[in-house]
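Entry for the shared binder. Reason: the reviewer on the internal report wants the predicted structure included alongside the sequence.
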Amino acid sequence: MKLLTYIQQNYGLPRRVITDAIKEKRIFLDGQPVEGYATILKYGQKLEAKIRDKTINDTITQTEPETDIVFFHKPVGYVCSKQDKHNKTIYRLLGDQYKNYYYIGRLDKESRGLVMLTNDPKVVHQYEHPRHKIEKEYIVTVKVRDQDFVKRLIEGTKDIRHKQDSQEDFIALVSKLFMKGLLVDEDGKLAKKTHTSADLLRIQSMELVNALDSQLRFLKIQEPEQGKYFVVRMILNEGKKRHIRRLWSAIGGEVVDLVRVRIGEYSIDKLPEGEQRK
């Protein structure tokens, strides 16, 4: 087992705090300062350290733990974080048995749906590294105030008013725009190429949800309302901070509800809100 993994799992310390302690030569194996966070621990070694309020004085007897994956239905009002002075974290609902698990697929405070947790950092890397392009699927309820603005973005016109298209036609236009990608700043506004903190945000696919099936009703998705709310199914294989909310905001839309229903091959199915399963 790696030194970093051992300390994270057994003492609940953040990665950065541990790596800083290694750089400052405050972690010792058999009396010698540890040189790197990738150091592999061996049976019988003596590990000593004082990090924050944690005193470590262990003889290594652990072997690599069996990989465990937990599926959690995150409610609105909780943040995906180990520690947060200002917000309730998902670990308050999960219980002490999962306090050292890593979460996969961060959701913001206002969003709900599927979050995975695991005790194995390799699983986190598998699902979170951009090069693996793991799909994440969302059901998004959105309000768009000015559909003409979106059409002008695509067609490059400024003063032409368009005839009212069907919802399917409009969402098809938005889907093309989102798949191509938009440069969006942190506040959800369209940005110029010279904007240093803007992100190129894009999606893999999007389709209109015309009718709610049994799963969406179980998830309490709002019924689509002509001229007021759209309900869409969006699939991403990359993810930046508030990715979907910023995309819609950039074209004058407002996300009313955002539910993640799938990460890779794993679906939320009918897992009740605030509960977990393996």
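Summary line for the report: The two ends are 24 Å apart (CA to CA).
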